[in-house]
Amino acid sequence: MGGLKMEVRVLRYFNEIVREGNISGAAQVLHISQPALSRQMKELENELGVTLFERGHRQIKLTQEGSYLFDRAQEITTLVDRTTDQLQKKAVVSGVINIGAGESRAVQPVMACIEHIMAKFPQIRLNLVSGDSEFLRHQLDTGLIEFAILMGHENLIEYNTMPLSGVNRWGIVIAADSPLAQKKAITPEDLVGQPLMTSGQTMRQDTFRQWAGMALNHFNFVGQYNLVFNAALLAKTGACAVMTYEGLIKTQAEDNLVFRPLTPALVDQNILVWRKDNRLPNVGNIFIKEMKEITHDQN
């Protein structure tokens, strides 16, 4: 595919206009004339056959098509920059480790490995992305990250995989004065009728459904979260219980929160994954080598 719409330069112009909120401000940042920038955008719209901006007197507003292009343009320019950076790196010991992970204490050994690499090779940098499994797989598949640490049970046939040591134990975080706080562990029946928040990913897991059994039909889900910190603030008010991994939320006396594990125990393993069809940069190969050595030593 060719033409103006595929030029990275024009996508950078478009991104800058969106960030600045108007063409005149973007023109100053880009050091080009406002008429020239306006002409570029008009030509881009003509070639794509869509309207990207709702133009006002002072500010521009993106159309639905413009919002879609902005999302894709950011991914494209990021990928181009990263690819260029990797190609221009002459030294094996420089570059960026791009890795995504969910929230889990069991990720700590990976962070220890990265600390070891950065100590050996000071030019190496880390780009750490947080999110749930669906978001991280999208980041992997579009090339925005090279590695992800996924949790739970998923079909990973298209990825290289490396199981990590340690497991994530599921439980609930609740206000310390909640009746459930008096229990040492939480059964599915304990949660029947209780206001409950959990992650969207958990709701889709077969292991969670198997644990809950028929009681799942009587759970009172009042919402879901993708990162647990803010959900825990709601639990602190007593409004609901929050399902989460052990150790992610402070549950000391002054925090007015307690963690109670599920019973029968429900655990998820952490798995480091990277695409089979993705040729890793040198720094990525260093990371995998170090991780394999750590895994071998632990076994």
| Mean pLDDT metric | 87
Structural class: alpha/beta
Radius of gyration, taken over Cα atoms and rounded to an integer in Å: 24 Å
Q: Total number of β-strand segments?
A: 11
CATH superfamily of the largest domain: Periplasmic binding protein-like II
Q: How far apart, in Å, are the first and last alpha carbons?
A: 49 Å
Classified by CATH, the class of the largest domain is Alpha Beta
Number of helices: 10
Biggest sheet statistics: 9 strands, mixed
Strand content: 15-25%
Order of helices and strands: HHHEEHEHEHEEEHHEHEEEH
Q: Residue ranges: pLDDT <50 for 5 or more in a row?
A: 1-5
General form: globular
CATH topology of the largest domain: D-Maltodextrin-Binding Protein, domain 2
Number of domains: 3
Family: Belongs to the LysR transcriptional regulatory family.
GO molecular function: DNA binding; DNA-binding transcription factor activity
Domain HTH lysR-type: 6-63
InterPro entries: HTH-type_LysR_regulators, LysR_HTH_N, LysR_subst-bd, WH-like_DNA-bd_sf, WH_DNA-bd_sf
